[in-house]
Structures are given as structure tokens and as C-alpha cells.
Please model this.
Amino acid sequence: MDTPLDDLEQIGRVDPRGMLDVITTLPESAEDAIDSADKVDLKLRRFKNLVVAGMGGSAVGGLLLRDWLQQTSSVPIIVSRDYSLPGFVSRDTLLFVVSYSGGTEETLSAFEEGKIKGAKIVAFTSGGELEKRAKAAHITIYKLPQGFQPRAAIAHQLLSLIVAAKKAGIAQDSWWEVREAIDVLKAMREEMRPETPQWSNPAKKLAVELHGYIPLVYGSRIHEAVAYRWNTQLNENGKSPAGSSFIPEAFHNAIVAGEADKELLASVCAVFLIDSAEGEHLASKTRRFMDILKARFGKVLEVQTCGEGRLARMLSALYVGDFVSAYLGVLYGRDPSIVESIDRLKQG
Model:
């Protein structure tokens, strides 16, 4: 199939703001984020729960943190994506408020509610109103670099949250996974960067497979946030409808989508994030799930995770999705960086 994905000049014309460049340098952004976050002096009192408040791309770091630490954290981690906070938030809550722009109205509302409830607040932002309010209230700020789309700042947002979680005492035992994850991403990058031709580039191949289809992304519980990230990146970068679900929950509802009209399903592609570390029972049932969908969906594709630690496996699948979404935008002739509909909605 003829494709513009090996034409670097064509990629530059469709992606003039450099979304693919930002994705390509994600491992270095992660290292920069660790260096910057390590310099922040974070003093904490004891807390019983951690709430991460954010919206859109600024919420994804919290979702990934939750999924990564779900089996090791000594406190519950909740992600709040709303104007208001959960009712249990109190002085016993550590509240991470995340708004890349600093102007997200829902997050600013959560920030003010957190102050009223006496939560221990830490702000993560590149500036804007959130930075002003945090400074006025003498609240610790993790300053994120400016110049990114919020979704493209995922490395800075996630790694700043991880460093803060480590300082809070809930990520020390898993810290070794951070270095492994960055090393895995650097190795994967060589296969997926724009300079690598399509015949040996798995991300370009997947984008071509998805072109003209509506993707539905499935992953096990550890990859719930990763599948959601695929969904939103396909929406924003790829300008494509998409959906996501997680296993085993999908066994109880999403599988029934295969009973829809065959003509409708012909344009649907299921993408499964396959994790070799999953148990034999879950892996076997997932294979049966895939076989059922193969008989009905237009396509069923697989993405294999890499690495030993949970974080490497999660971020390896995420990294593939980020590249695929940008390449899909190029195939559709749409700038991966522009989100006109979001801008119109914000303008009222």
C-alpha cells in the first residue's frame, strides 16, 4: 500500500507543530522531569488517601500512577475528574492538583474545595491561574515546562507525580521500575521513529491497519489507563472515533458488541494490549474473547508489551499508541496537534 508515512517532508507538512518530535523525545522528557521534580522540597504530614484531581491529558498521569501502584500502595489512590472532590476528602487527604495550562476550570474548582476541606495540596502546572493561587496559599508547586499540548506533556506530568509519590512514601519499593521503563522506551523508539521505514516500523504498520477503521482498545486491569490513553490519543492526534475497555470487565459487556449488525462491525477494529506477565487463566480467557471478536469484527490486532516491571509494560504499550495515533493523523491528512473542537467548546 502506498503511504505517506515514509515521506518525511509530507510528515512535516501535516505535522508542522512537531507532535511526532515530542513523542520521539518522550524518554528524555521523562529524565528531565525526574531531575526537575527531585529538586522540589516536599514536606508532608501523614495522610490516609491520595487524590489526583485533573482533566483530559492532565488526568492521565494520575490514572497511570493509580494503575502502576495499585498492588503496592499502602493507601488508596483515587483520580477525580470533576468540578468537585470525593466526599471523603479531608485533612487526612494528600491532594495532587494537576492542570498543565493552569487554567482548567474543573481543576481550579477542585483546588479551592481542597483548601476548604483542609487537604494537603500539591500543585502540578506550567503556570496560569493554578500557579498564582498555589503561590498565594504557600502550596508546593511542581513547575512543568511550557510549550506542550497537555496530552504531549505526559512524561513531565507522570514522572513529576511519581517523584512526588516517592517523596510521600508510596513508591519507594517500585522505584527501580522507573529506570527500566525509560530504557525500554529508548530501545523501542528506534523502531517507531519517523526515520524508520514502514516495513520495519510496527507503529506505522499499525496506523496503516487502523486507517479507515474505528478502533476499540482492550487491555487487562494494569492497562486500563493505557487503553484509555490509546482511546484519547486516537481521538485527539488521529482525529478518529475510538473506544476502550479493560479485562476482565470487558468479558461481561464489551464482548456483546460482537452481536451487532455484521455490516456495522465491518468497520470496527479491536486492538488488544497483550501482557505476557498476566496469569494463564486470564490469558486463556482473553484469547477466547479475541477469537469470538475475530469472527465478527473487521479486524483484530495485537500489541505486545515489553519489559519486566509493571511500569515498563504499561509505558511500552502507551508509547506504541502515542506513535500510532500521530501516524494515523498523518494518514488522514490532519495535524495531530490541533484540537479545534476542544477550543470551540472552551470558547462557549
User: Anything to note?
Assistant: Residues 102 and 131 are 6 Å apart (CA to CA). The beta strands are 49-53, 77-80, 93-99, 120-125, 140-143, 214-220, 243-247, 268-274, 299-304. The two ends are 42 Å apart (CA to CA).
